[in-house]
Structure formats: C-alpha cells, structure tokens
Amino acid sequence: MGKDEEFMPKILAFLCNWCSYAGADLAGMSRLKYPPSILPIRVMCSSRVDPLFIIKAYLGGADGVLVAGCHPGDCHYEKGNYYTRRRFVMLKELLKDLGLEPERIRLSWISASEGTRYAKVATEFTEKIKKLGKNSAKNKIFL
Amino acid sequence: MTKVLKINKSTEQGILDLLKFLLEKGKVKGIFTLKKINKDGSVAYSLIAKPDELKYAVPFYPLMPVNAGKLLSRFSLKGSSSKPVAAVVRPCELRGFIELVKREQGSLENIFFISSTCGGVYPIDKSVDGTVEKNLSKYWDAVKKGELPAELRPACRSCEEFIPYAADMTVDLIGNNIDKQCMIFLNTKNGEELTKGMDGELLEKEINKEKIDKFRSKRGAEKKKLFDELDVKMDGMDGLIKIFGKCIGCHGCMRVCPICYCKLCEFESPDSEYKPSNYESDLKKRGGLRVPPGTIYFQLGRLSHISISCVSCGACDDVCPVDIPVAMIFKKVGESVQKMFDYIPGKDVEEDIPLVTFEKEEFAEVEE
After folding, report:
1. Considering the domain boundaries, does residue A73 fall inside one?
2. Were A115 and a residue from A26, B19, B331, B342 both cysteine, which residue would form a disulfide, CB within 3.0 to 4.6 Å?
C-alpha cells in the first residue's frame, strides 16, 4: 500500500453458518457492493466464538472484529446467540476497563435474507474503523 | 434476627472449644482448618480428626496459604464426603468454593462452613520471615477496634465483601471484644443443630450494622486509592505492556486461582505453542517479538474467562514473583463486569454464572 492510498482496514468477521454467512452469500449473489475489508470465518454458531478468538485477533493486529449471528429468537440452536450477547457485554466492559478499544469489536444480527443488511453492516463498520485508524497492537513487539 | 451463641471466653478459645465440641460429640468427623506447622508462623490447611490435634489448630490465623475453596474442591471433586466435616474458611474462600461448585468442581454436601467477618491476611511471604507472628497482637488489636491492620495484602485492604454469605456459622471478629467474648452467629438450621449442647448463652442478634458500615467505608477508601493508582498505569495497550512486561510466564496466578479449574489450560496446551512459522510471521509483521510470547494474550484471556467470577481473594498477588498487581487488576475488571450482570460471585449456589444463562429480552444495546 502506497502512502497516498487510503487505509483499508482488515476486519475479521465470525459469521454464523445458518444466518449471517448465508446473509453474506446473499449480498454477494445480489451483487451488492461493500468494501473489501472483511475476512469472513464461518462458524456453526456465533456462540462458538470464544472471547479468546476476538482477543487473539485484536492482539494479532486485526483492525476490527465482527461477530454476526441470527436475530434473537431465531438461533438454529435456539439459544446460542443469547450467550453470545452476554459474552459481548462482558468483553466490551473488560476492554473498556483496560483502556483498550471496545469500538473495534462489533456484534450484529444478520439473517439469511438480509443481504442488504450485511452489506450495510460491512460498509458502516469499515467506515468506523477507518476513522479509528490502524490497530496499534499490530506493530507492538511486546505482546 | 439471627440466633447467636455467646461464649464468655476469648474468641480464640471459644472457637477451639467449639471445634473440640464438634469432634468429641461426633457431630463432625473432621475439621478442615489452618494448622501451625512451625514456630516461624507457617501454617497449612489440614483435616483434623482427633480432638488432641486441635492444639495446633489456628483458625482465622491472618494468612491464606492457598485459597481453601480450591482445596475443598479437590476434597469433594470425586464425590462428596460420606461423613460430615466442618470447614473453617474465610468469606472469599467460601465464595471461591461456591463458584467451583457451580462449575461442578466440588460438592457442598456434608461440609459445614464456619466463617467470620474477616480482617484480612498478610502476604504469604510474610509468613516465612516471622513478620506475621511478630505482628499478631497488633493485628488482633486493630481488628478488635474495627480498624485496618497495617501491611495486609492489597486485595484484603480493599475488600468490601468481608462478611460471609453462605456460612452456617459466622464468627464475629471485626469490632468485637474478642478478648472477652466469642460471638458465633448461627445462620442456618445446620449451624443451630451443630452447636446444640454447647456451653454458652443463646441470644438473638444481628451483626452491628454501624460498625460494619464504618469498617466497609475504610476499606472502600483504601480501594479507591488502590484503583486510582492502578488507573494511572492501566492506560491502553502501552500501559498493559508496561504492567505485564515483567511477567515471566510462570502461570502461577492461574494455578492458585480458585476459579481457574481447567485441568488442561488453553494457554498451556500444545495449541498455544509457537511454531517456527508463527515466529517468522510475527517477526515479519512486527519486526520483533517478545519471548516468551503471548503474555498479554494470557492475561486478557484469563480476564475474559474468570473476571465474571473473580472473588478477589488475592491469591494471584501472593504468588506473583515479579510483583505485578494481578489481584487489583482482576478485582477492578471483575467488579465492573460483575456489575453489568448484577452478580456477586459465590453469594448463592443456586444463582447461575451470568455467562451460562440469559434473559430473552436484555442488553439490546450491545448489538449494532
């Protein structure tokens, strides 16, 4: 990336197999435009995402981490996303307490039919991270 | 009102008499308590079955060699004891044990808990150089007056949860005339049953709220001071790197933690081992690498796993060889995380750990 080129964040996205991954698929099939910043990882359920994954990504230099799952009440496993939500509350609070950046992590509900919402979330989140700038952890030697 | 057994002896003697009574009358088959090992002041938790052995028992000695919750978990992990045992533990140890029971790492069955309003303990390294022995009379003097004894561990100096939640009996120490009387609050039916037949006066009382509030506010002020000191240092990633920079990766904090119970810890599993390719990619990306790697990852990971249940017992501080204020960091983060869920770890065994339960309608604001 040259100096004049715009900063394009790297955002790791954990997408649940049943809703959000299908939503992302739909966005692609519908030829919707969104920034090339998202690196998707498919998980069977958003509750598969141990907060450790998010921390590891953050320390590894991911500029943002998105976790997306089915809307509350629509979880394929009935209640997985409720647990995800609580973990997110915990993790955001933890990051805030340590003076880290809870803004760099995001939880979104995206259903299989919400291709447009997926594109919107991807665009919005990318813009937000662009404003925040690069994740400074990327260049820290002392982790 | 709670039933109280008042024994007209010093608290120290009163407790020993009670323990002896429990053993001699066969009400319990064993006493789990601190026992003196050596004249220099080292103590260890022991199970005592013979009344004679009680002469070495030092319940409520101001030292916590290990969080007893962790020990009781090992005691009851493979099944509960078939014989009743009385355990003399501190409020944070009891809370730690209850958190472990919630994680199916122990059983409350056949264990009766004798706890106290807790004055706090000294750092473990003070036990071997004789400091605790030397300070003992000063310590009990301060506790008697409802003051904060000097030189205690930061986790104890700042502890506001010094009244046990789930004990069968609570021995009143703070602000009590412990030279002259022994006040044992009988919180449960079991507590009442166990003490039936014991010499002493039965009263109906509550722990004096005024003196407790006063003591709590002193601890609160100390906590604020310690948190403020920490805030200056805990400033973002650079702050964390400074704080944890000296970590030698011994994982001692994890090993003594009453909440960390995993037999194979993620951070010690082969998965966490750095392969040559990991080193190479990190070197390429960062231009350098701290060895051993993953210090901040370990601490953040541990925070994410246990802060919800941290009972702030301070065991991690005790063992840290490089004096990282682990306990205060965990206490600070723990308190704010626990507050989000209105959760006091170890208060009630029936209450679910917040991360394994949910309400359908809650925290809508966390989703964006």
Report:
1. yes
2. A26
- Would the CB atoms of A143 and B360 count as touching at under 8 Å? no
Q: Extract the runs of DSSP E, i.e. beta strands, from B89-228.
A: 111-116, 169-171, 182-186, 201-205
| Interstrand relation of B182-186 and B169-171 (parallel, antiparallel or unpaired) | antiparallel
How many CB contacts within 8 angstroms connect chain A with chain B? 118
Q: Where are the domains of chain B?
A: 2-221, 223-359
Considering only CB atoms, A107 lies closest to which of B287, B358, B367, namely B367
- Cis ω for the linkage preceding B51 (within 30 of 0): no
**Cβ-Cβ contacts under 8 Å, B289 against chain A:** 141
Q: CA angle at residue A113 from A111 to A115, to 5 degrees?
A: 90
End-to-end CA distance of chain A: 25
All residues of chain B having their beta carbon less than 8 Å from the beta carbon of residue A128 are none
User: Smallest Cα–Cα separation from B29: which of B44, B19, B15, B39?
Assistant: B19
Test A143 with B336 for CB contact under 8 angstroms: no
The pTM for the full model equals 0.94
Do residue B337 and residue A90 have CB atoms under 8 angstroms apart?
yes
Is A141 within 8 Å of B266 when comparing Cβ atoms? no
Q: What is the domain count for chain A?
A: 1
Please give chain B's pLDDT, 368 residues, in tens. 899 999 999 999 999 999 999 999 999 999 999 999 877 778 999 999 999 999 999 999 999 999 999 999 999 999 988 999 999 999 999 999 999 999 999 999 999 999 999 999 999 988 878 889 899 999 999 999 999 999 999 999 999 999 999 999 999 999 999 999 999 999 999 999 999 999 999 999 999 899 999 999 999 999 999 999 998 888 889 999 999 989 999 999 999 999 999 988 999 999 888 899 989 988 888 888 888 888 999 999 999 999 999 999 999 999 999 999 999 999 999 999 999 999 999 999 999 999 999 999 999 999 99
Range of the domain at A30: 12-130
Whether A40 maps to a domain, the answer reads yes
| Distance of alpha carbon B348 from alpha carbon B8, whole angstroms | 32
Subunit contact A56:B366, Cβ cutoff 8 A: no
A100 with B237: Cβ contact below 8 A: yes
Identify all chain B residues contacting A87, using CB atoms and an 8 Å cutoff.
355
In chain B, where do the E strands start and end? Answer: 2-7, 30-36, 43-48, 85-88, 111-116, 169-171, 182-186, 201-205
Specify if A118 maps to a domain: yes
